[in-house]
Amino acid sequence: MNSKGLRGKLKESIENKITGAISEDDQAVIKFHGMYQQDDRDRRVERAAKKLERLYSFMIRLRLPGGFLKPEQWVVLHNIAGENSTGVIKITTRQTVQLHGILKSKIKPTIKSFNIALLDSVATCGDINRNVLCAAHPKQSAIHEQVFSYADKISELLKPKTRSYYEIWLDEQKIEERSEEDPLYQDRYLPRKFKIGIAIPPNNDVDVFANDIGLIAIIENDELTGFNIAIGGGLSTTHGNPDTYPRLASIIGFVDNEEGLLKTVYEILTIQRDFGNRSDRKLARLKYTIDTNGLDWFKEELEKRIGFKLGSPREYHFSERKDYYGWEQNHEGKWFYTVFVENGRVLDEGTTFLKTALLEVAKTGKANFRFTCNQNVILSDIEAKDKNDIAEILQQYNIISHTSGASLIRRNAMACVAFNTCPLALAEGQRYLPALITKIEPIISKYDLDDEDIIIRMTGCPNGCARPYIAEIGFVGTAYGKYNMMLGGDRSGQRLNKIYKNDLNESEILNELDMLLSSFKQTREQDEHFGDFVTRKKIVQQV
Questions:
Q1: Per-residue model confidence (pLDDT) at position 14
Q2: Is residue 61 annotated as a catalytic residue, yes or no?
Q3: 188 catalytically annotated
Q4: Residue 282 catalytic?
Q5: Which residues 6+ apart lie within 8 Å of 500 measured at CB?
Q6: Is 195 annotated in the active site?
């Protein structure tokens, strides 16, 4: 990558006041700094008619391994969102937050403000290891903190060595004209993005098999004995290209110590760096490297590089894939409140003042913030003596009623950003799904299925950011107002769904769901989940 250590000509691009954009070459470089150039697609026609350039802005995504923020950091994030972006704080499907609508002149002040709060956006986009996921809720296990610490260790291990981020955005002085040595990424980086997730059974809240590397914590007698290693997950596809496909990660072995685990993770990346497809980006993820060369070949190459044999995979069991809404208490007696944040959009809307409430909670300094892979926020680590103070704030701003009043189908739904800022979007995502859910809820009630935890996910394109390919019901945008309908994923995220019908509009979607849910109500087996019902009845064919 001829970018001078991820520097490119970013300094010149940012200082160019003639345009709100940066140069085309720098648009690739800036991704490695945690940013995407975007424009308001709703205003393209209007601005073109006035002979104005597109309304360009930037999205900045934070690096938050395991999705953890201190309260004082949330206050900074809140203030930055109000001063420099659209004002909406977006919780992503990868357990971090991003801000949209940042003008070019505001990028540097934004990053400097983040830095003061000990936050950064290094390596959250681009062909590099992205934000490392970890099971979100400390109630899941007494050793959650021990497992959680691996997210930060892996993130640091796989961070690029270049100082370009600090020179360009934080005015760090460059000592000499050279590119830093980076044994992992060298001067090539990776063929495509790379994702890692850590799960604690029995809850697969991180969708561990959707990651390039999935680490499954094995806990015996309340002790962490090691991790099963799964490789080759990835969900993005391309419409009309049969060579692209979603894939769940394959378990290849077990590692029982920290040094061995970190070595294994590191060398999996070096294999992808050396053997990944660099001639076709659509076929460049790790899943294609594995399927092209074979799983046995990959494991043999990995063991050669790490210098030891992987152990046999240990037994584990996933039974659910969800967030624990409302109040929960962990083994230490601390309290946690999981807030429902529809599609991850933190804002004050109607009678629910979510953004204000979270700011007031943060100001007390009595709760940390943990983000989930389902785009929600956990107010965490609350001492018993402080629980009532936090509860009063949540009650005052209608957060408790908002969370408890949301239907199960709505709580389990998730959508990507899509329009109006994502340049890849073919259809709506987060702006449309809430309205569609409102029309699905009466169908659910008609068949007395309100207590069913059916998982619905939607994306505006086939890239799969909201992981629709492992939903019980997935919608993948094909054109404005049209979606492929996917069925048959399981409750725990261990089975892909399949295309049921193509290019459906809203009316067709609702008609199909009415028919399917009617059949589910009448012919399901005892305690059978919807995705399992669809598969058993061969409504879609599982290969």
A1: 92
A2: yes
A3: no
A4: no
A5: 485, 486, 487, 488, 512, 539, 540
A6: yes
- Tens-place pLDDT, residues 29-77: 999 999 999 999 999 999 999 999 999 999 999 999 999 999 999 999 9
* Active site (annotated) includes residue 130: yes
- Let me know if 465 is a catalytic residue: yes
In the residue annotation, 501 being an active-site residue is answered as: no
One-letter identity of residue 235:
L
Catalytic residue among 130, 299, 355, 457: 130
Mean pLDDT (whole number) for 398-407 = 97
Q: Which sign, positive or negative, has the C-alpha torsion 268, 269, 271, 276?
A: positive
Name, in order, each residue with C-beta under 8 angstroms of 439's C-beta and a sequence gap of 6 or more: 506, 510
Q: Which of 90, 461, 467, 491 is catalytic?
A: 461
- Interatomic CA distance for residues 475 and 288, integer angstroms: 24
Contacts of 311 (CB under 8 A, 6+ apart): 226, 253, 254, 255, 256
**Selected catalytic residue, list 192, 195, 263, 285:** 195
Task: Could you list the beta-strand ranges (E) of 330-424.
Answer: 335-339, 345-346, 348-349, 352-353, 368-371, 377-382, 414-415
Structure confidence by residue, pLDDT tens digits, 467-522: 999 999 999 999 999 999 999 999 999 999 999 999 999 999 999 999 999 999 99
The residue annotated as part of the active site, out of 139, 193, 321, 355, is: 193
pTM of the model: 0.96
